[in-house]
Amino acid sequence: MTECKICRYRFHKEIRDKTVIITLVETKTEKEVGYMRFSDNPDYIELEYIVANPTGQGFGSKLMRVIKAIAKAQNKPIYLDAFNYAISFFVKHQFMVIEEKQTKYSELVRMGWQK
Length: 115
Description:
The chain is of the alpha+beta class. It has helices at residues 59-74, 87-92, and strands at 9-16, 19-26, 32-40, 45-52, 78-83, 96-102, 107-113. The protein has one domain (9-113): 3-Layer(aba) Sandwich (Aminopeptidase), CATH 3.40.630.30.
């Protein structure tokens, strides 16, 4: 997706069966430091998951900037289901709580973002 000889990180985009996987790779070591998977539906983007490893170093935020830029370019909202421990991360990135859901195994919160 983005290649840069002097950048510390690069993104790799892969499309599989109507879903998009974007990986954040540290350029120097070629180590994956984060990735996300989303479905690009006709009217909205559904963020299926986002993972940063290690956490707390801005990798998740870098990935959020990418998906928000995609959504802005397509004039689409982003929706996701978040576990309670992840809500503060998404609120920090301007997502709003839409509804709370109780599943058989855990509580989820439906969230959305639109610019």
